Amino acid sequence: MNVILDDPATEQQFRQLLAQIRQYRNGETAANMRGKGVGYKLNWGVSLVDLRSLAREYQPSHLLAMKLWNRQWRETLILASLLDTPAEVTEQQMDFWTKNVENSEIAEQLSTNLWCRTPFAYIKALEWCRGKKHWLRYTGIHLMGRLAMSDQKSPDEMFEPFFEELLPLSKDAALTTILYRSLLIMGNRSEKLHQMTLDFIGLLKETASENSGRLAEELEAGLA
To answer: 66, 192, 208, 210: which is deepest, by most CB within 10 A?
Structure first.
């Protein structure tokens, strides 16, 4: 991680954001999330709509994003993904933040708001799919799907290497939902990727894994 010097203006913005977050707190939402097993160091229950509205009041800032991430509240983690500047994000930062992800909400917010806009998006998505930790793999799969949705300029060939990595992951029941969602996006991106996804479904059916077989059936129905 690069060492970034602090400055008074950014510190003021940081303190102002912390105060604003408290104004939007929703204890019921936070309690519901805890009840569903979504845990955070601190969760004020602020809605994603309100967090995006707050972020629009500030100019993107890499330093501000770093300060917000280091606070480790649910809301500051999400705001960090909304306010960072993709051009200043490094591979080391992407690895560090993603390795600290502990739930699907932050994994998906990072992929959607920030990672898909960085120059390293495809490299890291593929690398994370090969990772050993669950949330690392989850983020890689989600980022793959997000790129298929948002990056219409890149050729379909950019997605070919993923299919080989996803085959062993299909055996993991904990990844079934995110695999289904991301592969469905890929399969609907173009005729070429549609056919490649159908071919992948064929490979899923040939495995000895019951979970892979169920995923194949769900994808086949979803792409019909």
So the answer is: 66
Task: For residue 25, give Cα distances in angstroms to 18, 80, 142.
Answer: 11, 18, 28
- The CA–CA distances, whole Å, from 2 to 91, 95, 167, 222 equal 11, 13, 36, 44
Average pLDDT along the chain: 95
- Close Cβ partners of 22 (under 8 Å, ≥ 6 residues apart): 44
Predicted model pTM: 0.94
Instruction: Give the span between the Cα atoms of 24 and 17, in whole angstroms.
Output: 11
User: Within 10 Å of residue 208's Cβ, how many Cβ atoms?
Assistant: 7
| 3-class secondary structure, 145 | helix
